[in-house]
Amino acid sequence: MQTPQSSRLDSVVKSLQEGFHKYAAFVVAISWRKFALLAFLALVAGSILDDFLPSRRSAEMEAAFQFLSQVMDSGHGTPSGLSTLRLETSSSAGSKLAWIVVIGSIVLKVSARGKVEAEAAASAAEENADREALKRQVAEARMAAMEAQVEPHFLFNTLASIDHLIETDPATASRMQKHFIAFLRATLPSLRESTPGSIQPLEREMEIVQPYLELFKIRMGSRLQTRIEVPPELLRAAFPPMMLQSLVENAIKHGLEPKPEGGQLQIVARSENNSLILEVTDTGLGFGASPVPGAGIGLKNIEERLRLLFGDRAGLQITTPPTAGTRVTLRLPHSSL
Q1: What is the CATH number of the domain that holds 247?
Q2: Rounded percentage of the chain residues whose pLDDT exceeds 90
Q3: Pairwise CA distance, residues 29 & 117, whole Å
Q4: Is pLDDT larger for residue 47 or for residue 181?
Q5: 101 exposed, middle or buried (CB, 10 Å; 0-12, 13-18, 19+)?
Q6: Does residue 153 belong to any structural domain of this protein?
Q7: Domain that holds residue 21
Q8: CA quadruple 238, 241, 245, 250: dihedral positive or negative?
Q9: How far is it, in rounded angstroms, from Cα 304 to Cα 301?
Q10: What's residue 141's pLDDT?
Q11: Given the DSSP bridges, would you call strands 263-272 and 200-201 parallel, antiparallel or unpaired?
């Protein structure tokens, strides 16, 4: 059981420790120029105290000052430009006390600097990690919002087409409904399993796109021709979910469907310099010529998703092929799943 006296002693020791740590942090934080000014003021204050304090010298004090003098002479623990200081063994206690404080502060500033800098670096690294985690969370939230914007878009368009054919051509509507069921069977697992930033094989994208194209072949008849050139060895290539389907939908809705005579849609994939190159080309009205509003929203979403997923390693390019129309080229890192 602690006595009141021991409790007071512990409190005093704790206060001294806290004061020492605060002083050490202060000494390390200030510049050497400010430190030199404070040291000079401390020595001036010590010389002033000489007039008020008795002059005594003990063997122990003399030995301590001899040791500090040797430290100063050897240059240990002192910065450049301060090693010329010398400890004067004056018989005045004020000057001696001032020198003890100055020299102790020099040693403290030099020895503790590395520890304080390491702690500051660790704190900065932790703050940077927190910022990066926040950026990642924001990016994932933005990607989730963009995927939510794209997914209902093509689903509602397909349902509207089936509804229209039920009134005008029930037999064709029935066939279209079967293709729509096949499309949903391929699509829903991808939507359910995918998360913001997820990647899936290109093969799964093709399983979604092919029934989707069959739906529009029924709707557009001979006005839509398709051509797909995806080598089997690229079917396992990593690819962002729903991105190819969005490109195909964009090409049909804004390029081929508004064109009276229709045209051809071509999908080509190839590997080039460790990159997966995928091109969706249509012979429709051309980029920016579609009367249907919102022609660039889907492409902007895709470009943003690529940037968030792969940074500068991926990109989207829009060009006009020799046969007119629009060609959208995706470039992203090639890796297999």
Answers
A1: 3.30.565.10
A2: 23
A3: 10
A4: 181
A5: middle
A6: no
A7: 4-127
A8: negative
A9: 5
A10: 52
A11: unpaired
Residues 197 and 84 in one domain: no
For residue 16, the model assigns a pLDDT of 77
Q: Are 217 and 175 in contact, with CB atoms under 8 Å apart?
A: no
In the DSSP assignment, the letter for residue 242 is T
Query: How many domains are contained in the chain?
Result: 2
H-helix segments, the chain: 4-29, 32-49, 59-74, 93-168, 170-193, 202-220, 243-251, 297-310
Query: What confidence tens digit (pLDDT) does each residue in 243-267 have?
Result: 898 899 889 988 999 999 999 999 9
Q: Is residue 135 part of a domain?
A: no
The predicted structure's pLDDT at residue 230 = 95
- What predicted TM-score, i.e. pTM, was given to this entire model? 0.56
Both tokens assigned to 34:
């400010």
Residue 87: the pLDDT is 41
Amino acid at 278: L
The Cα–Cα gap between 76 and 125 comes to 32
Distance CA 109, CA 67 (A): 19
- What is the β-pairing status of strands 224-229 and 275-282? unpaired
Q: Which of 127, 161, 177 is the last residue of a domain?
A: 127
| SS3 readout for 209-220 | HHHHHHHHHHHH
Beta bridge partners of 311: none
CB atoms within 10 A of CB 186: 19
Q: Which of 244, 251, 250, 205 lies closest to 225, judged by CA?
A: 251
| Residue 92, beta-bridge partner list | 55
CA distance readout (Å), 206 to 17, 139, 250, 262 = 69, 27, 16, 22
For residue 60, name the pLDDT band (cuts at 50, 70, 90): very low
Q: Are residues 230 and 97 in the same domain?
A: no
Phi, psi for 55 (deg, rounded to 5): -95, 110
